[in-house]
Design a protein that fits this description.
Elements: H1 14-24, E1 31-38, H2 55-70, E2 74-80, H3 88-93, E3 99-100, E4 114-115, H4 118-121, H5 129-142, E5 148-151, H6 165-179, E6 185-189, E7 193-194, E8 197-198, H7 211-217, E9 222-225, H8 230-240, E10 243-245, H9 248-252, H10 256-262, H11 289-299
Parallel strand pairs: 1-2, 3-4, 5-6, 6-9, 9-10
Antiparallel strand pairs: 7-8
Amino acid sequence: MTRLRASMMHIPIVGTVKEYYEQRAHTPGTLLITEATLIAEKAGGFDHVPGIWNQDQIDAWKEVTNSVHAKGSFIFCQLWALGRAANPKVLVSKGLPYVSASDIKLSTATVSPRPLTVEDIQDLENRACFPLEVVDAVVEAVGPERVGYRISPWNTVLDMKLDNPKPTFTYLTSQLKTRQPRLAYLHVVEPRIVGMYDRKDADIGIDEENDSIRSVWAPKPFISAGGYNRLSAIDAAERRGDLIAFGSHFIANPDLVYRLENDIPLNTYDRKTFYLPGAPTGYTDYPFAEESADKSLSLL
């Protein structure tokens, strides 16, 4: 997800964004993976999404990362290119083309994207080739230990799910492991999550699971995300050896790691505030456990 706390020029609003990530670096050793961040203006299509293609954006992110490092924690930037998921009106307003891998439009869209030509894609011949080339390029720039890869095999948001995801994602995983054996991690979303929402158990097919991907990637670091609570996270970590990622709960709990470690009840998140452009509401105003305790004591 992204959080829309950037300017119209896609520069993170430093005071607010820095505070947000600094709060969530509360426990030393925490790994933060940033909100989705655009790699180029032409790869965008939403207002107020942060970018990382020009110096002003890079400088703003440096302030954020420096503050996280000062807390003894770690941060990875989640790179994003929207393709057909972009808002065509936003691209047109900036004189940019609305393009995708094909001219197949989203089920909710009224406009079809222009399909990329052979010249655009440099004749990359199969579905897995392009993401592998992207990984190779990023590794060449920053080194493999600073690169992780995230996949959502079962996600139906923006019409992305394949009819049979397993063969493609298992092959992609095997190629990532072979080509880049020193990648930092593989980050995989569980089938019980679609976008921000949980699926009912009855809606999850018996063949919808990530164990085949786990077995291919093993014994390398595997981050599992999607619908975890404290007990299910501990179970997955102990039973499978997974690292566990939290998204929505981390939004509402700046000291999430501390709360999980000490079995402290979590704040409840408010989805209505997830995407409020520029606003601190629902972003930096969730209380720490200590603040909640102090407030309760003051009411006694």
